[in-house]
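Protein in question kept underneath.
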Amino acid sequence: MQTLKGYCEKNGLDINKTFDMVLGEGGGILPQKTGMQGYITEITDTSIICINDKLGVKKEIPFTSFTRAEFGIANAQLWLQCVVDERPFVFCTTRRNWKAPSAKLLLDKIGEQTEILGMKEYNGYTGKKFFLYMWK
């Protein structure tokens, strides 16, 4: 299994503008062969480009199509639950990835289109007192 860094190097992508996501619900926007599907997501000024080489998928999703976003925690993972083109679009990543510059860029771009609710969940999950937060 190739790392995100390795994928970026191989494909000439900026690691600070690339996000590794696990899609929980694609709402028909992105295909899912299993319950959850992995995607490499390149962040541009106007969109995210979701890539899954195994499925042969490369799909651009404009930030203007995001109309709702809210963080929530389920199964000890931080999920961003969005509405994109009036359909559910839900994804997560690791705690380390949520703290990365690429995640902050992604949240900034989505936040330009719609308020991101549940930032308390994001701050608790990515904060220094993570273990105390998760035990509550």
In short: The CA atoms of residues 17 and 81 lie 20 Å apart. The mean pLDDT is 91. The first strand starts at residue 18 and ends at 25.
